[in-house]
Amino acid sequence: MRKFKTYIQKFMIGRYGVDKLSTYLLYGGLAVVVLANLFNWSIISLLGWAAIILGYYRTFSRNRTKRYQENQKFLASTRQFTRSWNQKRNKFLQRKVYKYYACPNCHKKLRVPRNKGKISIKCPHCKDQFIKKT
User: Fold this and answer.
1) Number of Cα atoms under 13 Å in the Cβ half of residue 43
2) 122: β partners
């Protein structure tokens, strides 16, 4: 077993390895292949296999700069979606502790604690003050 591990480590020297784009391609391709086989969609199954092959190609590629640039483009294109998703997720997880309001002046989102009755909220951005029930 140790000999095999050493062989794999030597094989991977100078290769790009696994990154986010490769991971998405591999898992996405696997999901597509499984669903295509369940519903007997042979054309869609080929697309899944193509994604898996591309994921492995990227992992074993020796052109590290090209793969790095591709991964950076992928991360840049998904960053806005990821940020939006995380904000919605955090807002949902904090819904029992905090209430969210938009400032009537600058429309920034403000987070205030729940169950404090009527409170005066001062916007830290525009210094406007307004009263809301929490």
Assistant:
1) 0
2) 129
**Each residue's pLDDT tens digit, 33-84:** 999 999 988 889 999 999 999 999 999 999 999 999 999 999 999 999 999 9
**Whole-structure pTM value:** 0.66
Residue 127 tokens read as 């210094």
DSSP assigned state of 128: -
Q: What is the mean pLDDT of the chain?
A: 91
Asked whether 6 and 19 are in contact (CB, 8 A), the reply is no
- Per DSSP, the chain holds a count of helices (H) and strands (E) of 4, 4
The distance of Cα 89 from the centroid of its chain, to the nearest Å, equals 12
Helical packing angle, 42-60 and 20-39, nearest 10°: 160
Please say whether the beta carbons of 52 and 33 come within 8 A.
Answer: yes
